[in-house]
């Protein structure tokens, strides 16, 4: 991945960028303003506001999105809104495209604009939220929205043992505080990485691929919205189901069996076709966790990114090391997912 610009955050005059984007997307200009909202590995979210009009601006840090992908995402999100799933709407620019490359004088950032969603990141993963997660994922998968192209290698490939040990050497050279923790974890990384497998091509549908608590906003009226669809693309219902169960209901070394049962029941009631069959169903989850740790640790010692980005990479890598899953955790999740019917019977639910 190559950083392509200094970033909107380096501008002294964000107002000029706000006015430019408002005109480019045929939005009200007036007293247009940009304010930062959220910051991640691949991009930053800004709020574009002008009085009562508000929009979300997604700034991409990496050259990994193109206009064709933006159109596919927009088509997918239109389809999911039609089946009752709350999510932002992509905004077309005046030239009929979704992406905008800002002028160099305004940072040269690659951005796109979405409708604004009011809400806070969900805090609970049980009860109503767990059932909403299952129902929403079931609706997405029941669409069987056609997949275009091949799955991103992020979901099917992980670094080799040799690449991990080369990274460890570089981490040691930079005297990163968590270097010893990474070294101690390498055997576990090697073991769990063997679970990553290619997604069977006859199972491919379009999936969200990042359905995590960080990407669900709870609105003031009790509604939920699933955001951050940039990663959506070819995936497997089976593997995404396991990914969601682990991401939402596995905490530390334990799995919340009641929440798993609620999510699984709602998923099936919504027509979700995925089934967690065995530990190989966890391939997508493992690939995501392993690649995230490798990428965050790499960014933490990379010279050609900003100091802020390196510091965030170091903090995120340390967090990922502390929350790295064990094979036993995956096995426990698989057991609970397969026996969720029995769990519900024990609770007196049908």
Strand order of the largest sheet: 1-2-3-5-4
**Judging by the overall fold, what is the CATH architecture of the largest domain?**
Alpha-Beta Complex
What's the Cα radius of gyration? 21 Å
Q: N- to C-terminal separation?
A: 49 Å
Question: What would you call the shape?
Answer: globular
Please indicate the percent range of residues in DSSP E strands (runs of 2 or more): 5-15%
Q: Which secondary-structure class do the elements indicate? A: alpha+beta
Q: Write the element-wise H/E pattern from the N-terminal end onward.
A: HEEEHEEEHHHEEEEHEEHHHHH
Structural domain tally: 2
Strand tally, please? 12
Oligomer: single chain
The number of helical runs is 11
Give the biggest sheet.
Answer: 5 strands, antiparallel
CATH T-level topology of the largest domain: Aminoglycoside 3'-phosphotransferase, Chain: A, domain 2
Low-confidence stretches: 1-5
Q: Please bin the fraction of helical residues.
A: 40-55%
Mean pLDDT level: 90
CATH class of the largest domain: Alpha Beta
Domain Aminoglycoside phosphotransferase: 68-276
InterPro entries: Aminoglycoside_PTrfase, Kinase-like_dom_sf
Pfam family, one: APH
Organism: Streptoalloteichus hindustanus
What does this structure look like?
InterPro entries: Aminoglycoside_PTrfase, Kinase-like_dom_sf. This is Phosphotransferase enzyme family protein. It is a single chain. The protein has 350 residues and is of the alpha+beta class. The chain is built from eleven helices and twelve strands. The protein has helices at residues 14-24, 67-82, 127-143, 161-173, 179-193, 237-249, 257-269, 283-300, 307-322, 327-338, 340-346, and strands at residues 33-39, 43-50, 53-60, 99-101, 110-115, 120-121, 204-207, 216-218, 224-226, 233-236, 250-251, 254-255. The strands form four sheets. Strands 1-2-3-5-4 form a five-stranded antiparallel beta sheet, covered by helices on one side. The longest helix has 18 residues, at 283-300. It is globular and about 55 Å long.
